[in-house]
Write a structure and sequence with these properties.
Length: 223
C-alpha cells in the first residue's frame, strides 16, 4: 500500500477566467477555459487532498469529490479565496485562474444604449486586487504556487515573476496558445532554478505538477 502524496492536505485552487461587467448584459473576459485548473484539482483529489476550487465561469464539470465556489468577477474570486482561507487552514494555494487585471470602474446598472454614430461609451478602469500576491503576503500563508502565461522570454520573465509574486513555485505555460487547448507544456521555477515538464495532455501534466508540489511541501515546514 502506497500512501497518497497529499493525504490529509487541504488544497485551494483558483481556475478559469473572470468576468468584469460593463453593464447588465456585457462584460470583459478572457480565453481561459479552466481546463488546467480543473485538471490540477482532479490530480490533487486523486493524490488524497481535500480540494476547494474557486472558479470563474467555465463549461467544465466539477472533478469528482472536489467542491466549487463559483464566482464571476476578480473581486468575488478574491473574497471567496479569503473566506476559504479564513474558514479552514489551507496547506497549498495554487493560483491558476486568468484573473482580469482591471475592472470597469463606471459599469452601468442599466444596459448602455447606442445613441448616435459618434457617441461611444467611455469606459474607465480600476485595478483589481492581486489574489496570489495577497495570499503570498499573509503571515501564516499556505505553500503558494503561481502561474504565468507569457508570450515571450518565458525563462527570464518566469524567474522574475516568481520573485515579484514572492512564491516558492511559479509555473510557466510555454507559449500563450494554451488557452482552451487539451495539452500544454510547462516550466517550473523554484529557488533551485527551472525544470521542464514536456508537452503532454493537461491531466498528465497536472498529475506531474501535483507530485512536484507534494515533494516540495513535504520538504518544508514553512508554508
Ligand atoms: O501578474 P500575472 O497576472 O501575470 O500573474 C499570474 C499569476 O497571478 C497567476 O497565478 C494568477 O492566477 C495570479 N493572479 C491573481 N490575481 C490577479 C492577477 C493574477 O491571483 N489579480
Amino acid at each position: 500500500f502506497q500512501p497518497k502524496l497529499l493525504t490529509g492536505r487541504r488544497v485551494l485552487i483558483t481556475a478559469g477566467p473572470t468576468f468584469e461587467p460593463i453593464d447588465p448584459v456585457r462584460g470583459i473576459t478572457n480565453l481561459s477555459s479552466g481546463k488546467m485548473g480543473y485538471a490540477i484539482a482532479q490530480a490533487a483529489r486523486e493524490a488524497g487532498a481535500v480540494v476547494t476550487l474557486v472558479s470563474g465561469p467555465t463549461a467544465l464539470e466539477l472533478p469528482y469529490g472536489t467542491s466549487r465556489i463559483a464566482v464571476q468577477t476578480a473581486q468575488q474570486m478574491h473574497d471567496a479565496v479569503m473566506s476559504a482561507l479564513a474558514g479552514q487552514k489551507q496547506d497549498i494555494f495554487i493560483a491558476v485562474a486568468a484573473v482580469a487585471d482591471w475592472k470597469v470602474a463606471n459599469a452601468s446598472t442599466q444596459k448602455l444604449k447606442k445613441t448616435g454614430e459618434q457617441d461611444m461609451p467611455q469606459l474607465q478602469f480600476a485595478q483589481n486586487p492581486d489574489i496570489l500576491a495577497n495570499v503570498a503576503a499573509m503571515p501564516d500563508r499556505p505553500y503558494c504556487v503561481g502561474f504565468a502565461a507569457e508570450s515571450e522570454n518565458l525563462l527570464q520573465f518566469g524567474a522574475a515573476k516568481r520573485a515579484k509574486k514572492n512564491v516558492p513555485l511559479l509555473v510557466g505555460n510555454i507559449g500563450h496558445h494554451t488557452f482552451g487547448q487539451d495539452d500544454n507544456e510547462l516550466v517550473l521555477f523554484d529557488e533551485q532554478g527551472h525544470k521542464n515538464l514536456p508537452r503532454a495532455d493537461k491531466q498528465t501534466l497536472a498529475t506531474q505538477l501535483i507530485a512536484e508540489i507534494a515533494s516540495r511541501v513535504s520538504n518544508t515546514n514553512r508554508h
